[in-house]
Amino acid sequence: MNRRNFIATTAALFGIGAQARAAEGSFEVTRSRAEWKAMLTAQEFSVMREEGTERAFTSPLNNEKRAGTFLCKGCALPLYSSEHKYDSGTGWPSFWQAVSPDAIGTKTDRKLFLARTECHCARCGSHLGHIFDDGPQPTGKRHCINGVSLTFAPA
What we know:
Strand order of the largest sheet: 3-4-8-7-6-5
Largest sheet: 6 strands, antiparallel
Number of domains: 1
Order of helices and strands: HHHHEEEEEEEEE
Structural class: alpha+beta
Number of helices: 4
CATH superfamily: Peptide methionine sulfoxide reductase
Strand content: 25-35%
CATH topology: Metal Binding Protein, Guanine Nucleotide Exchange Factor, Chain A
Helix content: 10-25%
């Protein structure tokens, strides 16, 4: 195995390079790295395009209680309804389902040496957060979402 193959294999094992896949144009809405950087803050870019995480309890959307819809900050696709939002106590906006199964995409994230379900906007590929199996009924799911990946549109 040559050095290039070793690096590519190692990166794949650890989930490195996912942002490159999102930038490849496999989504309806695509932008260059420069275009994303121009439209997003440094923190938004880190989370949405490099799969970072905002600090817990820092997003104003965590405490958003009004009726409305949470949209992708990258492309304005409706992702989550306030009807499905709940206080998980984790410090991030949490939902028990998306507005539609087609609104988000998922993939396995192994960055922390354990398999988690990462979710992203189905239209632009922006990283949203992760989905866990410890949420309320009727789904039993907790969509733990970075607030910086969302905007809120009141009803």
